[in-house]
């Protein structure tokens, strides 16, 4: 082996060791996945993180959705730029959680399309290795949508992830993609924590009538058929759109809403009660 190859091998081994050290301080890692874009994956990732923080957990939210890094927008920190302290990237502290997004590094939103695979993988690796997350109970990772190379490299880089939360909408076209997402998780040995059906039903704010715009319960049936847990449904809520557009923490501002309560129920299903926090190992 040449000296050059030797150097590369040593650097890779060192980086891996640094990443393991940093990630060793994170007790649970959840990947939020979807079979396709536009189903509310990022919205769900943000609100799961906020709901966990509301339970008293230390929470990090990592956005590695390279083609649509929407966490900065959803949390109203689009203009923020990460700083470096003692050789580590300092995550943004917002709404009680720590967050880092690939969006902070993209000057133009379409820049990601010209990045090649290794560049994307490197930046994700750097977020795991060089961000000073500190001790976290949960790291929620907003992953690229679909079941292609990008989510695959995320899963491969994030060792020992506890599992995936799969987000879908109720209509059949989206549910077909859930099947693919579950098959994807199985092929990479990533446990499926469960499926969330987003945008189920719209309650008219004027007359109170409920309309199932995208159908109803498709994901629930699919989850049963595929033998994975169904975690719950989030209704379509115009306030979620508004909170997302204005960068406000929805579950904090509208904690009494049906949607916020649905998020709270889902995290309670997935996370032990805060009193049992020390049991999380
Ligand atoms: P994805 O990450 O899957 O591409 P986003 O989280 O960016 O999707 O959501 C897409 C759009 O749908 C956003 O405008 C968001 O505000 C909206 N949205 C997501 N979930 C809901 C919901 N339950 N009710 C209303 N709007 C929602």
Describe the structure.
The protein has 281 residues and is of the alpha/beta class. Helices cover 40% and strands 22% of the residues. The chain contains ten helices and eleven strands. The protein has helices at residues 3-23, 41-54, 71-74, 117-129, 149-157, 172-187, 218-225, 238-246, 250-253, 258-270, and strands at 26-34, 59-63, 83-85, 88-90, 92-94, 97-101, 136-142, 163-168, 192-203, 210-211, 230-236. It starts with a helix and ends in an 11-residue tail after the last helix. 45% of the residues are buried.
Give a brief rundown of this model.
Helices cover 40% and strands 22% of the residues.
Topology:
Elements: H1 3-23, E1 26-34, H2 41-54, E2 59-63, H3 71-74, E3 83-85, E4 88-90, E5 92-94, E6 97-101, H4 117-129, E7 136-142, H5 149-157, E8 163-168, H6 172-187, E9 192-203, E10 210-211, H7 218-225, E11 230-236, H8 238-246, H9 250-253, H10 258-270
Parallel strand pairs: 1-7, 1-8, 2-6, 2-7, 8-9, 9-11
Antiparallel strand pairs: 3-4, 5-6, 9-10
Helix pairs in contact: 1-4, 2-10, 4-5, 6-7
The structure holds adenosine-5'-diphosphate.
